[in-house]
Every structure is written in structure tokens, then in C-alpha cells.
Amino acid sequence: MGQPVAGNPTQYMMEKAFAKAGLDWRYLTLEVAPEGLEDAIRGMRAMGFKGGNFTIPHKVAVIPLLDELSEAARLMGAVNCVNRVDDRLIGENTDGKGFVESLRGVAEPEGKKVVLLGAGGAARAIGVELGLSGAADITVVNRSAERGEPLARLLSDEVKVASRLVVLEGDYAIPEDTDVLINATSIGLGDAAARVPIDVNSLREGLVVADVIFNPPQTRLLRDAQEHGCTTLDGLGMLVNQAVIGFKIWTNVDADAGVMREALEEFLGI
User: Fold this and answer.
1) Which CATH number fits domain 9-95+238-268: 3.40.50.10860, 3.90.226.10, 3.40.1190.20, 3.40.50.720?
2) Is 59 a catalytic residue?
3) How far is residue 195 CA from its own chain's centroid?
4) β-strands 81-85, 88-92: how paired?
5) % residues pLDDT > 90 (the chain)
């Protein structure tokens, strides 16, 4: 295990991938206050930026400043990637796409029954993309009906995938017919001992267990899942695939995913 690298993990991956592809491009990390967002977008247009990534608190606020949205970004109501096409700025969301591409490494989403823990931005992005990718059924598990019900309704009504909300009380027992369990909450971020509220005895061989947490990559949930014979998927793959997708959107060149994965591991010191 090495020493972590200071800065931004996506910037580190992108710079390495640009160099590998022989592209004289730069990825800049710029902090913009909410009140400066409109000016920042105007600056992107004026200076000819090819695009950019947006994070909290700008993912929703940037939408009215753009010219067009992808279907996924429209359904999610959030943008994390902007691409310049001629003089138009197109909003995209690669959060869910990155997860689905990572999932395809171990299981195809088509026809799968999914349990999705959480109802925040990550859960919304993942749920939408899984629905668009042909998942058969999604159960949203969340402590709050106020946040969980709108997501279940969006997936059912707009994405057209059978969905329902289960309000979490105590530990959740994973139904036996579940194909994929996803932790899309922040539980475990920076804390390898943090416990996701599930009944570990309901974990079983053949179940795919995924965690969006990338630091640390081996969360308690994934360790428990491995002990019960599950196939596991860490959050590094989702982050790498988001970067791969963004790279392709901007450059129209396929990124070297291996270089990006190595860069992310180097960044995290693992």
C-alpha cells in the first residue's frame, strides 16, 4: 500500500488517460461558488471548454443554464457531465452509466431483480440506468418514505420498471429471489467498519453485492458478502467507468480503463 495522492481522483485519472492516448488536453479542478455558477458557464462557452464535470451543489442548478439534456439526465433531474457540441452545451449524467458498466463485468442487468439501498442522488442515477438497461424489478429500501417514495414512483412511472419502496425498520432481510443488492448510501465512506443495516444471514451464494463506496474499496458490506459466497463489486469500478465514459464523450477516443484504474489505486494509495 502506497501513500495517497493529494487532489482530485477524477483529475488524476483523466490526466493519466490523456497522456496515454497522446492527447494534449488538461483536466482542471475549479471551485465555483453557487452564486458564480452562471458566470462559470458563460466562461466555459467563451473560452471554448470542451466540457466539464459538475458535482454538489451544482448538479441540479446547472440544468437551466444548458441547451439540452440526455434522456438519463432528464429523468434523474441532475447533471454531472457537460459536453460541448458546436456551440451547444449538452447535459449528461454518467453516475448510473458508470455503475451499469461496472456491473456488466460480473452480471448483465437485463431481467435482474434488484434491491437498491438508499434514495439519494447515487441511488436515483443507478436506478434510472438499471431501468433503462432492462432490469426487471427494483425494490428501493430507505429509512424515509418522504425520500424513497418519489424514487420508486419515478422508476415505475417514468422509467417503466416495476418498483416499490420498503421503509427500513431494523435490519433488512434480502429476498431469496434477489439477483443484485446495491448499497447506494454513504454508509462506509471513510469507515471500513461501518455497518449497512441488512441481515447478513440473508446473504447467499449467487447474489451479486455491489457498493458505491470507493474509499475504502473493501467495505464491511463487501467483506460480509464475500464470507457468504456472494459475488462482490466495489466502488472503484463505478468511478473508473464514469471517467471512461466522460473521456469518450469529450474526446471521441476510447480511454485505457486499465490506466485509469491504476491511477485511481495510486491516488488512493492502495
Assistant:
1) 3.40.50.10860
2) yes
3) 20
4) antiparallel
5) 93
* Residues in a beta bridge with 92: 81
Catalytic choice (16, 20, 50, 59): 59
pLDDT at residue 1 greater than cutoff 60: no
6 pLDDT tier (thresholds 50, 70, 90) = low
Cell 425520500 appears where? 147
Find, among 4, 2, 13, 5, the residue nearest to 238 by Cα.
Answer: 13
pLDDT at 5: 61
CA distances from 232 to 132, 144, 192, 224 (A): 23, 27, 16, 10
Banded pLDDT at 269 (limits 50, 70, 90): confident
Q: Are 100 and 109 in contact (CB under 8 A)?
A: yes
Q: Which CATH number fits domain 96-236: 3.40.462.20, 3.10.20.30, 3.40.50.720, 3.90.1150.10?
A: 3.40.50.720
Averaged pLDDT of the chain? 94
DSSP characters over 212-231: ---SSSS-HHHHHHHHTT-E
